[in-house]
Design goal:
about 550 residues, alpha/beta, Spore Coat Polysaccharide Biosynthesis Protein SpsA, Chain A, 8-stranded mixed beta sheet, 21 helices
Length: about 550
Amino acid sequence: MTDLEIPLGKRTPKYRFFEMVPAFLSYGLIVLPVILSLFSPLLAAIFIIGYIIMFFVKAVGVAYRTIQGYNSLEKASKVDWLKRLNDLEKPSKSLSNLQVDQLKTDTWKLQQHKENLEAVISSPSLYLKPNDTYNAVIVPTYNEAEEVLLPTLETLLDSSYDPQHLILVIAYEERGPQTSHELAQRLAARFNKKCRFAIAVMHPNNMTGEVRGKGGNITFAGRYLQNWLKEQKIPAENVLVTTLDADNKVHTQYLAYAMYAYITEPQRDRRAYQPIALYLNNIWDVPAPMRVLATGNSFWTIINAVRPHMLRNFASHSQGMASLLKTDFWSTRTIVEDGHQYWRSYFAFDGDYEVTPLYVPIYQDAVLAETYRKTFKAQFMQLCRWAYGASDIAYVANLGIRKDRPMSFWNFWPRFLRLVDSHVSWATAPLIITFGAWAPLFINPEANHSIVAHELPQIASQLQFLAMFGLFIIIYLTFKMLPPRPARYKRRRNIFMLAQWLIMPVVSIGYGASAALYSQTRLLLGKYLDKFDVTVKAIKK
């Protein structure tokens, strides 16, 4: 069996080389316009124009995917997924009740629902009965207050899903404050009366072979859940497990939708299920830079939902218990256990593993602390943690670049190259697009004699303006998605919500590129991030 764990301590030369690759590539791309400008302003101009054109092409694709993803989100959120889930219990009867004229309506993917019912009827042994299945939700917590954690748990019971098929595990840390211990136990006892089962599980401190992160906490809780299911004689295949951050609020249809997708997938043990994360819970309260980042992150998840080849486990996601047993749950050796879980599963199943998008939202908090200073710092640390996903490059290269690789060339290499490209672009694109066009003119006086180099800033500006079309779409859709403005804010707050986009270039460099370069530099130097900095979740009253 393939060893799925990240090495602790000393790495092999191969592993260390690929840990340094993202930093080498990122710094190399940033320095390349400077070097080219010194020797040939024309070559520098050609490189920068080519880079910006590539960015423009991507921007066009992003604009199209943004509209496509938003439309899917709108339509899927209106579907009665509980009814479709219940249809699977008696598929023959449900199929006969589907009217022909109903199939001609614009009800989202109703034709696919019909095909799913037909598949269940023709091959019943491949599918589960809804009444035999359970949604298990693991909610990790460290020091979140009751006003943060309680609404998250209440949305589970307020959803359309039958609470008697809901299993709740509150995973709290021994190293957390005593108040968190008491809160977890009290909430578990309260919700145990309302669902199939609820329990608070304490993750011991300083466990061998673990970094201080969420992965160890939810893995410990997952193993407790595994033993409880055995005691209850509930098959692992019948349980879909969702990890839900303490500030997450599920859409009313999420649990039913996730279980529907799980049941109707014959290869369900080789799939994960990814909802759309929208950082809108407290969007009116956070400072402007945090609003820009939160909105950008929200649309990033919307766009990736309609690009299945790019979709990876992110934040809250669902995976079958049988699948989790295959990977021994989540990694306890990384602070980015969510995205890393995709690659653990990918290699556990020899490349036959995909993430299925769920086009309903899980609402999350944007970063907000007690003061502006703490908020800005917390936001940067959160982005550094996300950008530390670049550590997966060495992990994937170590397991995938070898002669006895079980997956094909076309299965592995496109995934690996997209992984590298995403992290390098994260670190370099804002800098090159903002400053690259001026490099030849400032660095080499000979650039003034080159028409192309001299006109480069204007050419770049025009291409960037065209690429802004996608941003205008995001701004428009943002206002459609915003929750109602709190009464404590006047209408002029709307103007600030629009004006905030003027600082996007500064935010992209000050937070996006800087966080990515920080994490990649630590990997380059072998200064590993082995502590999960819990993002502060303050409530503005």
